[in-house]
Design brief:
CATH class of the largest domain: Alpha Beta
Radius of gyration: 30 Å
Structural class: alpha+beta
Largest sheet: 6 strands, antiparallel
Number of helices: 10
CATH topology of the largest domain: Heat Shock Protein 90
Order of helices and strands: HHEEEHEHEEHHEHEEHEEHHEE
Strand content: 15-25%
Number of domains: 2
Length: 394
């Protein structure tokens, strides 16, 4: 027996296979009908849609076979994906590659095999549509053409599903962008308007008003940067989010975020404490900035006359980031749903509104970075968010 060789583009091929989201899925009539038709046209007892994974061949649809998968090492399809045309073995017992193959000398006793590769529009061969018999055979030209057409239809179904998923993803991204901009831009604008109103009402002295306006200008600058970040995020989402790897300084990121939050913190008499070590890490700058900014904004929302502290610990395989506040805290029934339920949104200490979207997006970004987030909180004592972040390799 000769073990199937690996294609030169094996890793790219496997990535394409994963993205079809077909592996280990339930039976579906679209694919079941294709193998039934292939079996009838070719007059074969066995027909399969086979997906060749890293170490196995798995059957998405099948006729005449009980098994759901076999080892890739004994697979005929592993050989078939090495070419772009039909792979036909007319008599396995007379073929040096297969005469002692367990699938030949034992059940299902393969003698004839013909498989047409499932080729994506990028040229990757994910598996085959194949027909099998227990006696030597040879396909006619008409049967070969039918297998080709049917195999192309397998790929068309899979790729159409991916396109539909992309369209749905784009629609959801548009909704999220609108909500983020409406929520995160409105808040600083309200703060700046409040300063102007206070000044016009004579509630600030000249020196205090000038200081507050300086803070407002800084916040406005940071808000504009935030808008740019959100637009960049939206564009990357529309392309299906790819992590953008670069070396960043975590302490500098926290310092920038605190500048953005300074005005809101001052209004609520909260102290912002940056106890992050001077850590450089490889990650997605926009993603980690978005995560920490939203958590700090939330902490300020539920804290008054208190502290918001960010610290970090670099561990052997990851970095722990802690965002802590001395605010109102929350009950366990709320904290347990914080990252899973968009309706979890309560008013802050000054009746600040929210829609719960920010924390859902925080969780989404954490997942993109292969990290995790947890929260400890109790009513009246504040909250502590812990982010475990795995460093990305360049």
């Amino acid at each position: 027996m000769i073990i199937p060789p690996l294609p030169k583009n094996e890793q790219e091929r496997l990535q394409d296979l994963v993205e079809t989201e077909l592996l280990d899925t339930p039976k579906e009539s679209e694919f079941d009908d294709i193998v039934k038709l292939a079996s009838q046209i070719c007059n074969m007892p066995i027909s399969l849609i086979t997906l060749v994974d890293s170490n196995r061949q798995w059957f998405k649809a099948k006729v005449g076979l009980d098994a759901d998968e076999t080892s890739r090492e004994v697979s005929f399809c592993g050989h078939a994906i090495m070419q772009d045309q039909l792979f036909e073995v007319q008599d396995a017992l007379n073929d040096d590659r297969f005469f002692d193959n367990p699938l030949v000398i034992e059940d299902p006793s393969i003698r004839f095999y013909a498989g047409y590769p499932l080729i994506t529009n990028t040229g990757n061969r994910l598996g085959t549509l194949c027909v099998i018999d227990r006696v030597p055979r040879k396909l006619t030209d008409e049967q070969i053409f039918a297998l080709k057409v049917l195999s192309e239809n397998v790929i068309k179904i899979a790729e159409l599903r991916q396109k539909n998923k992309h369209l749905n993803h784009m629609a959801e991204t548009h909704k999220k962008m609108t909500s983020i901009l409406a929520h995160d831009v409105r808040s600083p604008m309200v703060s700046i308007k409040g300063i102007i109103d206070y000044k016009k009402a004579g509630l600030f002295g000249e020196d205090e008003a000038e200081e507050m306006m300086d803070i407002a200008l800084e916040q406005l600058s940071n808000t504009l940067q935030m808008v740019d970040d959100v637009v960049d995020w939206g564009q990357s989402q529309l392309k299906y989010y790819d992590v953008q790897k670069e070396i960043v300084n975590l302490r500098d990121i926290v310092g920038s975020i605190f500048g953005y939050e300074a005005l809101k913190a001052r209004i609520k008499n909260n102290e912002l404490l940056n106890h992050v070590d001077d850590i450089q890490l490889i990650t997605d700058k926009n993603a980690i900035t978005f995560i920490i900014r939203n958590l700090v904004s939330n902490a300020n929302k539920f804290t008054e006359n208190g502290e918001i502290r960010i610290s970090s610990i670099k561990r052997p395989n990851h970095i722990d980031i802690y965002i802590e506040d001395t605010g109102a805290g929350m009950a366990e029934e709320i904290s347990s749903k914080l990252f899973t339920n968009a309706t979890v949104s309560t008013t802050g200490t000054k009746n600040e509104k929210g829609n719960g979207l920010g924390l859902l997006l925080v969780n989404e970004y954490i997942n993109k970075l292969n990290g995790s987030i947890s929260v400890e909180s109790a009513i009246g004592t504040g909250s502590r968010f812990t982010i475990k972040l795995t460093e990305i390799e360049l």
